[in-house]
What does this fold into?
Amino acid sequence: MNESRPSAAEPTEAPETGARFRLLSCNIQVGIRTSTFRDYATGAWKHILPHGDRLRTLATLADAMRDYDLVALQETDAGSLRTGFISQTEYLARRAGYAWWGERTNRRFGRLAKHSIGAMARIQPTEVIPFALPGRVPGRGALLLRFFGDRHDGITVVIVHLALGRATRRRQLAHVAELIEDCGHAVVMGDFNAQHGAPEMKQFFERTHLVEPVERVNTWPSWNPLQNFDHILTTPELSVGSMRVLDEGPSDHLPVALEIELPSGCDRDAPAADRAGVFDD
It folds into this structure.
């Protein structure tokens, strides 16, 4: 049975004074269910062609994403043949009740696929900057979002999906470090394809002074998580609450969640989100 697009989300209120800012990062693997390594081979065609279970998988993901203020999405599709020309970021935002969403398409394969990275938020960003990440092979990109003020007083969030090669990841992390070097409060989150103790991660920590509240929260593979590829990193001045991995998910990555307390310098009267957009360089 085909599932129709959900109705538009109603605007929701921004966090009250003293509330925490709830973050979630999830690699959704374009809505493909994966529960064994064998599924990578038997389900490879789903990365190219449409299949009936994709929207049901997204509906399950949306249910798990309802309780957050900002959700970072990796391996989403901006609307192509394989998704029935539905933007998966938009679909998840509407289904989960987020009034603001944005996406950047990193790699296009005609009408067949639009590899993208996305975000959904309950608070209107004060600024959105999409950008390409360096690499020998084009096709990796990121989103920079600002909330509660400017680069000095607000919170700068960078959402990434890094390359598989270590040398390229080192260049990409160096680029991100430049973007946040003079930000008062920063968060970098997403699928890094690298564990906490990897050499390129250590260099990134040293250059940015970012920290990971819990160093070992394994997220991959979802059915038997042994690697911590998915991270939410924060500047040390941010007060951090709970950090956890959601213990189930239809993707091959488990979502990771973190709560931070809004710093006193942030504009706690930030407006609730009321519009969405698609962003390109």
User: Anything to note?
Assistant: DSSP finds five helices and twelve strands in the chain. The longest helix spans residues 166-180. Helices lie at 38-42, 54-64, 88-96, 166-180, 199-208.
